[in-house]
């Protein structure tokens, strides 16, 4: 990952850790949907490899990806895919599971492994292998109470994204429990949805994240003033 992408990733994870998951998207749709997401303010965009001609879609947007946006592949199950992503300057390597071999391949090629996990053993194994981000999946089925329990044993400073069943209605609850960010799938994009609709939903999600961030910032200020 070059320094420009590294800075973009660090900034996105700090300021707007929202991942658009475009499962099922086709090369014919990708340009319009990508532009709509970028215009709405999304900085992290994933194309799952079980989408039709996924590599063609990744290559198409990699050629014109803005400097402050980071793209990559989801549903990565093969370590050999790491080199292909590195060659395309698409540094997000996102998995649905915890496979140390895939993680190590991502690290070796300078990618950012965002690793799916559900149990404490999987989460700690992913962290040990070099995951940049953990992806709690399926988050909504597990619940915020489960996340609170598992988060207590995770390495401090390792971001955890809630993915699976997350939308505008439950972002606040998860954010209050300390999740670092979110991944959005079918509530944001599903095959056949117009770029205009994707952009509208994306803008609503970004707006909600900004609201939650402002609330958290205000609460921190109040706490500091109370301690002063």
TrEMBL record:
<comment type="subunit">
    <text>Homotrimer.</text>
</comment>
<comment type="pathway">
    <text>Carbohydrate acid metabolism.</text>
</comment>
<dbReference type="GO" id="GO:0008674">
    <property type="term" value="F:2-dehydro-3-deoxy-6-phosphogalactonate aldolase activity"/>
</dbReference>
<keyword id="KW-0456">Lyase</keyword>
<keyword id="KW-0119">Carbohydrate metabolism</keyword>
<comment type="similarity">
    <text>Belongs to the KHG/KDPG aldolase family.</text>
</comment>
<dbReference type="InterPro" id="IPR031338">
    <property type="entry name" value="KDPG/KHG_AS_2"/>
</dbReference>
<dbReference type="InterPro" id="IPR013785">
    <property type="entry name" value="Aldolase_TIM"/>
</dbReference>
<protein>
    <submittedName>
        <fullName>2-dehydro-3-deoxy-6-phosphogalactonate aldolase</fullName>
        <ecNumber>4.1.2.21</ecNumber>
    </submittedName>
</protein>
<dbReference type="InterPro" id="IPR000887">
    <property type="entry name" value="Aldlse_KDPG_KHG"/>
</dbReference>
<dbReference type="Pfam" id="PF01081">
    <property type="entry name" value="Aldolase"/>
</dbReference>
